[in-house]
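Co-fold these.
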Amino acid sequence: MSHYLHINGQRLIDSLFALGEYGALDGGGVCRLAATAEDKAGRDFVVARMKALGLAVSIDAIGNVTGIYAGEEELPMVMMGSHIDTVGTGGLYDGNYGVMAGLEVIATLQDAGIRPRRPLAVTFFTNEEGVRFQPDMMGSVVFAGEYPLEQALAAKDRDGVTLDEALREIGYKGERQPGDLSVDSYVELHIEQGPILDKEGIDIGVVTGVQGISWQELTLTGVSNHAGTTPMSMRRDAGLAAAKIAVYARELALSLGGDQVSTVGHISVKPNLINVIPNHVVMTVDLRNTDNDILALAEKRLAEFVAKMAQEEGVEITRRSLVRFNPVIFADEIVNAVEGEARRQALSWRRLPSGAGHDAQFMASVCPAGMIFVPCVDGISHNVKEHSEAKDLIAGANVLLQVVLQRAQRTA
Amino acid sequence: MSHYLHINGQRLIDSLFALGEYGALDGGGVCRLAATAEDKAGRDFVVARMKALGLAVSIDAIGNVTGIYAGEEELPMVMMGSHIDTVGTGGLYDGNYGVMAGLEVIATLQDAGIRPRRPLAVTFFTNEEGVRFQPDMMGSVVFAGEYPLEQALAAKDRDGVTLDEALREIGYKGERQPGDLSVDSYVELHIEQGPILDKEGIDIGVVTGVQGISWQELTLTGVSNHAGTTPMSMRRDAGLAAAKIAVYARELALSLGGDQVSTVGHISVKPNLINVIPNHVVMTVDLRNTDNDILALAEKRLAEFVAKMAQEEGVEITRRSLVRFNPVIFADEIVNAVEGEARRQALSWRRLPSGAGHDAQFMASVCPAGMIFVPCVDGISHNVKEHSEAKDLIAGANVLLQVVLQRAQRTA
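Predicted complex below.
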């Protein structure tokens, strides 16, 4: 009946730009850290739109906000959503797009006089970015029951303010228990935040799952000595050992192939002086793979190389796991629905895993879940230059509309 | 006549500890940055000792202070010396030892009723360390006429205070023109600041020269992207290129062999986040060799590798030379005299170049110059833990005494 229904593209883009006004940075981009005054302003804007659409607004104890469009029957809801918090120098699209597109889907159905069989919902989860409070994806991990609510609320920012205090301050400490909504399916529309769709000129990313993530911190302790007077053979150079590990991390990803990635993003050197051999380095290694066995193999090989470096370079090295998420595989029924809709709408598409973490990975333990990606220019995200073309944003929302409608109307 | 003359070891050690009281740090070590109130206190202490020994004190326009013990004849002076400024977390011996040992040599001769043929002098040069004002070794490079006085005086510290202002403030802006003293020879006694003598259990380092130094700063610009979503093949990772250069710098030193050393002491990464590919790195490479041709070859090979990395990793790399000193070869007559004295005094000795810069390298362009090294424990220097054993300090001063006396008495 509604395959030819289309969302209102201009209304979607306008709503994204309107939300982008809250926490807008001079010169572009947004800073809307979780549970700040800027976040409150953004939340208030989205809640006002939910209410204007006649949605029932539900807020839970971790600040997740869900707007519900009642269905014809009392059944579990088909949920769309994402987050509206941003990193310190964020763009207009990361997270925000999935939320505003969800509301646009509901508005489109209302305009067409369609009330679906199942309720539809749009949720924005608290603190997906994890910049102000750790861990990230906090609202969804708590919703899924995989992280204790009390522990999340006790997380402190740099100034010692707890998330609980911050949520109360902005008026978003709700009464509902996280996870007490009955959810039939979860579909998250998001910009890719990577370069693949943009480079390959593809409209729709059919997201098959989320890569497993292993974050390790290495602390290297050598001996600080004079760069001129210490023969090469007598050095215990923590900086050199760190450099060798960084080079190995790249080789490791290349040798494992597939979608294995490896990044050394953080390196801090002490004393960090031109003429002093470094005696202290803290570095991080970020390993990701969709295949948990290969990810575990990468971790094992890295550990072996680190041990070898410690011995060869006379440097003490300790390892600490910061984050370890297993890969998530999205439900076939959602993945296939996204692919089918992209094909029916004559959009180019490809299957790909998400390299970034998303709320959908936790919702996948609650109900059948999936994601739709659209391209972002040059893969740039977490950056004020983050940009996606309006036509791509509109195309993604039209796929979301049809997938959600299928899910909501189905009788099987 | 005086081969069996010995310095007063206790008096030397006491004087070093007494000087170390000025600018003393809690828990050990000294902070006496050039031309600060602490430096003034240290200078006043040394000048008071010069006056107590009846020396004529001469201060030049860059704040170099020379105490002169008149000789029997009006001839160019045999100068000892070093510096008394320290790094922020310095030890008691670096520089200070050569100055106080020089005064101890004169005191010993006076005690023995010896007035040498040529005048003897002890100089402490201004701002050898170069921490507060750049360049380092400033007093001696100006004394040697290899750096303009006005430019040196105009050097500003972080607060915008010029060296000229700072010297006037502490009362050490003298009237003499730097370099207008007539110098016959220069002998500098210093702790090695490296591990060779200590590791090999050797008493005296016969310093053959000073390694040439090449300091380069590399700035690498790549593209910052998400660590999870950016395939390995699409990365322009400035951090990885920096790591490869650091590993190459080590390989370069090993492949050139000899006394070639190479150090990457400074690495600053942006944005320096665990899950973001670095887009900006500033790193330094410190290359040193006693052979200028090999040093130039090392620079050339490094430049070639840097260019290759820029191409292979898609990273823009700019190079800037921060410092370039040619190697210095000390005068045979001084080197041989030091070696001969060590042998005559039944001390173990070895020839070695200095890997660190010293005032003697500029004095070598003024007159025959040389240096004597004594061991420091584990080669640790520029550190509050810097330590040399009293017996080693005393042995070095006894070699200085005899070398200086030979130079001062010689008739050839």
